[in-house]
Amino acid sequence: MNERKELWEEIGTSEAYWAVATHDKFRASNLNSDLKEDFLASGREHVNDVWQTFERLLGNELKPTRALDYGCGVGRLVLPLAERCDHVIGVDISSAMLREAAKNAESRGLSNITLQTVDEFIADENAEYDFVHTYIVLQHIRPAIGYAMIETMLDRLKVGGHAMIHTTFVDKSPLFGRIRARLYRDVPGVHRSLNLIRGRTLPFVPVYTYDLERVRSIFRDRRLDILDEREIDHSVVGRMFFLKRS
Fold first, then answer.
1. For the chain, N or C: smaller number of CB within 10 Å?
2. pLDDT of 52-94, one tens digit each?
3. CA 103 to CA 95: how far, in whole Å?
């Protein structure tokens, strides 16, 4: 956990927006107020899509009172969730990310957001939510930790509550690219050394894949119905699961 925290503190300090949407325009050196609004607007589009999907599946309005966004980063999804829910808890491993999320919430006058570190989230054992959400987050967490986080999130989901869980399952990138990425990810110092040689500062964002049947078994064990699932491809193929706790 300390190794992960150190990595994401570095990323949150240097390239908080780019780490979420890896496009050069969101690099810290390019970011301005218009591009920041463009970035945050993409979060609203995602939340709108999630809401429309649930309401189509359920046949009624989705009105959570207490929602969780795990891996909230700078608040891209927390902000639109706060506009739809009575209260939202945003969780992230990076204190730097959380500070930026707090600034973004304050600038929009949103006072119904609580931000927590991962340690605070884990310690909050009595917490309950009626909506749980995580998107393009678990793919950056080692599966051994990620499975436990999925379990913790869903253990705290109230009966009748809903969840959207996204994670990745298949890396379809070319073989050389996969080998290089795993070398950067799993061998300490390799990527940092190459950055020094090339005169670059861009951090390496690790990506992992999960076992589909193990994730499904977590849902089954917690009596979660899969209302729908959608395959998406962000260079690594994953699925968005739309869930209800029966």
1. C
2. 999 999 999 999 999 999 999 999 999 999 999 999 999 999 9
3. 13
Q: Do β-strands 224-233 and 113-117 pair in parallel, antiparallel, or remain unpaired?
A: unpaired
Q: What is the pLDDT of residue 192?
A: 66
Q: What is the pLDDT of residue 32?
A: 85
CATH classification code of 2-245? 3.40.50.150
* Position 234 pLDDT exceeds 90: no
Residue whose tokens read 């861009």: 202
H runs (alpha helix) in 59-156 = 78-82, 95-107, 118-123, 143-155
d(CA 209, CA 234): 12
Closest CA to 77 of 65, 89, 62: 89
Buried b (16+ CB within 10 A) or exposed e, 64-96: bebbbbbbbbbbbbbbbbbebbebbbbbbbbeb
In angstroms, rounded to a whole number, what is the distance separating the alpha carbons of residues 171 and 178?
A: 8
The pLDDT value recorded for residue 184 is 62
Q: Kindly report the CA angle at 40 between 245 and 119, in degrees rounded to 5?
A: 55
Domain boundaries, the chain: 2-245
